[in-house]
């Protein structure tokens, strides 16, 4: 407003019309009084034909011979001794004299194409005008026969929406397979490489490895409700294989469903399956194993969510069953793991508020109980426990900028056996993807878990992990990746704490939508406050990925 006031005061003394052709690159204010002043859209110069005006009264009409003329044109002086040409009576055949409109202006009182005001008598009518200077009048214009129609006022059309530079169409993204109302994204990877220390022990020997990793993603295409699945499996094998054998399977699958009861009420359902083994080098493994025992965790969740305007309240219940395979020892005997089998019952209450589109802070409280099949393990410890956690965080859904979830809180777990110390500590969970620009994407992950233990006197294992990954597009078909990771394993009940570090660099060459070639180098370190547990491992991988 201050700038407008300065410009107004600077032009108050001389309101002369602007020149007919102004600088086409200079912004021009809209003069339509029905709309607020805005800058007009830039268009290419052109010429518009105007005919003589009709039914138009000049702004200075009726001001008298000495009144104020807003056009600020100098009036022509009447020559002395003879009549002014403007006072001569027009002949009867003149079209202006025969006009029935008493308000019609003389034929030589034309409209200025520059500002829409009257031009003083005797000034020639310009036949062309710049499209940047639009008349702000509402009268009708007479046109020459056969002339194209003249449009008054600017034609305001919204420019076509341009895609952000962060959302280019990926010509190498999988298209999927459409089956009924679902879209399936199958893929499989074949990887080969070498690991300098697959046993993850101090002074371990190296071995070549191979991995087969199939996966399937499913997404429903319903107008209401939703069903999606993420199924990922792998099998890793080593050659030559040591004792215990380190070859092992892994599967992590989850199916999520949502039933939209009403617009504001939904039912959330989930089923999950995890098949894996303890990590090599874990203190939970028995001595003299011939192979790593496999455990299976199967679970389900059911919840109800209700939306109250911007506030969302959800409650869900969980059930998980974990079963361990019997251990096979090198002497051929079988060792039972029944004392490690347990059921988990839990519930979660979560409230969130949509602070702004794409940002939804939340508060979450959860409680669970773990009940083992045996009242006491083989060392006489009662490991049934109860846990309570509280988290505060936010979800983000800022398209093409930031998506994911981050939360931090506190958790505690107490055990039925008084000899086992309670586990208390800060917990954090995160999964964020930040699209910095069209070439760089940053991924941040964090997880906190409380695991079971079989070591006498140890309550459990509190693990915290954070990871950072940067993907940079050297070309649209060539992606460079850098990974950094850090983790801490705290064995509550014994003076042992392991710190894990990892770093990696990879390159992905996208041949087409269906075929990719990958190469990666990984480096791992573990530093423990207990002597004899430190190790270093280097992994070299090269593989191919097929996807649809």
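-> sequence recovered:
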């Amino acid at each position: 407003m201050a700038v407008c006031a300065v410009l107004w005061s600077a032009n108050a003394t001389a309101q002369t019309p602007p020149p007919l052709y102004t600088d086409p690159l200079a912004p021009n204010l809209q003069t339509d009084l029905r709309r607020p002043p805005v800058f007009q859209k830039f268009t290419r110069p052109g010429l518009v034909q105007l005919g003589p005006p009709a039914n138009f009264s000049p702004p200075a009409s009726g001001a008298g011979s000495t009144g104020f003329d807003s056009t600020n044109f100098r009036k022509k002086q009447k020559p002395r001794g003879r009549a002014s040409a403007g006072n001569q009576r027009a002949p009867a055949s003149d079209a202006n004299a025969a006009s029935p409109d008493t308000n019609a202006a003389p034929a030589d009182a034309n409209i200025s194409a520059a500002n829409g005001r009257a031009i003083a008598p005797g000034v020639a009518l310009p036949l062309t005008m710049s499209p940047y200077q639009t008349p702000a009048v509402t009268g009708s214009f007479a046109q020459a026969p056969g002339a194209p129609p003249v449009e008054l006022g600017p034609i305001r059309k919204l420019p076509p929406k341009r895609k952000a530079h962060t959302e280019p169409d990926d010509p190498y993204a999988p298209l999927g397979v459409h089956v009924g109302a679902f879209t399936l994204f199958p893929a499989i990877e074949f990887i080969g490489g070498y690991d300098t220390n697959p046993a993850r022990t101090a002074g371990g020997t190296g071995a070549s490895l191979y991995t087969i990793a199939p996966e399937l993603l499913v997404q429903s295409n319903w107008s209401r409700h939703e069903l999606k699945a993420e199924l990922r499996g792998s099998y890793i094998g080593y050659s030559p294989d040591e004792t215990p054998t380190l070859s092992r399977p892994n599967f992590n699958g989850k199916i999520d469903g949502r039933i939209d009861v009403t617009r504001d009420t939904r039912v959330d359902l989930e089923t999950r399956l995890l098949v894996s083994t303890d990590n090599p080098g874990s203190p939970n493994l028995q001595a003299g194993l011939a192979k790593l025992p496999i455990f299976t965790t199967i679970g389900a969740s059911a919840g109800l969510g209700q939306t109250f305007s911007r506030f969302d309240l959800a409650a869900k219940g969980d059930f998980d069953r974990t079963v361990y395979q019997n251990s096979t020892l090198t002497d051929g005997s079988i060792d039972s793991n029944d004392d490690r089998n347990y059921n988990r019952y839990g519930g979660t209450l979560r409230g969130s508020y949509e602070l702004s589109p794409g940002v939804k802070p939340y508060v979450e409280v959860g409680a669970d109980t773990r009940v083992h099949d045996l009242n006491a393990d083989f060392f006489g410890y009662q490991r049934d426990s109860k846990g309570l956690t509280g988290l505060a965080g936010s979800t983000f859904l800022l398209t093409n900028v930031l998506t994911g979830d981050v939360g931090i809180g506190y958790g505690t777990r107490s055990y039925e056996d008084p000899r086992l110390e309670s586990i208390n500590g800060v917990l954090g969970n995160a999964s964020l993807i930040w699209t910095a620009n069209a070439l760089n994407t940053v991924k941040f992950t964090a997880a906190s878990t409380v695991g079971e233990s079989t070591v006498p006197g140890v309550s459990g294992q509190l693990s915290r992990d954070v990871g950072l990954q940067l993907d940079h597009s050297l070309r649209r078909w060539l992606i460079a990746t850098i990974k950094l990771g850090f983790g801490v394993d705290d064995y509550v009940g014994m003076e042992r704490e392991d710190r894990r570090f990892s770093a990696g660099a990879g390159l992905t060459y996208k041949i087409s939508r269906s075929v990719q070639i990958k190469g990666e180098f990984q480096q791992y370190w573990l530093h423990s406050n207990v002597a004899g547990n430190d190790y270093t491992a280097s992994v070299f991988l090269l593989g191919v990925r097929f996807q649809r």
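Confidence is low (pLDDT under 50) at residues 1-52, 83-120, 122-142, 164-168.
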